[in-house]
Design a protein that fits this description.
Structural class: mainly alpha
Order of helices and strands: HEHEHHHH
Radius of gyration: 14 Å
Distance between the termini: 33 Å
Largest sheet: 2 strands, parallel
Length: 125
């Protein structure tokens, strides 16, 4: 209910935490396509920017490498990765995922467009 109220009020961003909703999927919410895209975007109608909580938190960094966390989050539908532990590993993994087709350029462009739209609406561009 709080997320839907925020969406209905016009929230620009939603931060997805690292909690696991085992009724939906046994992975942290930031890596769940069912939560980020299925529930938040499709079911609840959120069209804004989705950002992770810090990727340096123990719930992520103790289980997933920086690159793996980045790829999983982007595949789930996340737009912005907050504080990856190893920026180079994150960038390298995302580039490789695009080059191999694991993540499509179209998927990245969706995030870029949402981020640019938000910046334009807020007068940052």
């Amino acid at each position: 209910l709080p997320f839907q109220a925020g969406i209905d009020a016009g929230a620009d961003l939603v931060m997805i935490g690292h909690l696991t909703v085992s009724d939906v999927e046994d992975v942290p919410a930031i890596f769940s396509y069912n939560i980020v895209t299925g529930l938040l975007r499709e079911e609840m109608g959120f069209e804004g920017v989705v950002i992770t909580d810090s990727l340096q938190m123990k719930a992520v960094k103790d289980v997933y490498g920086s690159g793996q966390a980045a790829v999983l989050a982007v595949k789930a539908g996340v737009d912005i990765l907050l504080c990856p532990e190893d920026l180079k590993a994150t960038a390298d993994a995302l580039l490789e995922a695009v080059e191999t087709g694991e993540i499509s350029e179209e998927r990245l462009n969706e995030s870029v467009m949402r981020i640019l739209k938000l910046k334009e609406e807020r007068g940052i561009l």
